[in-house]
Automatic annotation (TrEMBL):
PANTHER family: ADP-RIBOSE PYROPHOSPHATASE (PTHR43736), DIHYDRONEOPTERIN TRIPHOSPHATE DIPHOSPHATASE (PTHR43736:SF1). The keyword Hydrolase applies. Pfam families: NUDIX (PF00293). Keywords: Hydrolase. Gene3D superfamilies: Nucleoside Triphosphate Pyrophosphohydrolase. This is NUDIX domain-containing protein. It comes from Streptomyces tendae. Belongs to the Nudix hydrolase family.
Length: 139
């Protein structure tokens, strides 16, 4: 059984990227979550980003599809523009920060950092699989 999640790569005008530190495990990740049955992927991204960070976004385009083969989660990642709101944490996050691409690479596990880097390269959508720890070669 697969579940579908959505995440937003929110890019500010200065090139910084919106990230959250998860309350449950302390890792830095993109804001996102499980897509509800009755909502479009774009609406789900906007809802999740707002819920987790306080930032309103305009959803631009799909930049990647990522499958976690261990947990059976397919994540759809969209590049977004911030359109208002104020940064705040939620029950799911202990920090909300605008990070540089370098800080993203330092703080995030490779399987999550690649989602941001993919969204920035303009060559998407990318399709990748991982086992929760490392990327699995296509094929």
């Amino acid at each position: 059984m697969h579940s579908v999640s959505v995440a937003g790569v929110v890019v500010r005008e200065d090139g910084r990227l919106l990230a959250i530190r998860r309350a449950d495990n302390g890792t830095w990740e993109l804001p996102g979550g499980v897509l509800e049955l009755d909502e479009t992927p774009e609406a789900g991204v906007a809802r999740e980003v707002l819920e987790e960070t306080g930032i309103h976004v305009e959803v631009d385009e799909l930049t990647g599809v990522y499958k976690n083969t261990t947990r059976g989660i397919v994540a759809l990642v969209f590049r977004c523009k911030p359109s208002g709101g104020t940064e705040r944490t939620s029950s799911e996050s202990t920090a909300v920060s605008w990070l540089t691409p370098d800080e993203v690479s330092e703080r995030m596990a490779e399987v999550y950092a690649i989602r941001l880097l993919d969204a920035l390269d303009g060559n998407g959508p990318h399709v990748r699989s991982h086992d929760g720890k490392q990327l699995i070669p296509a094929g």
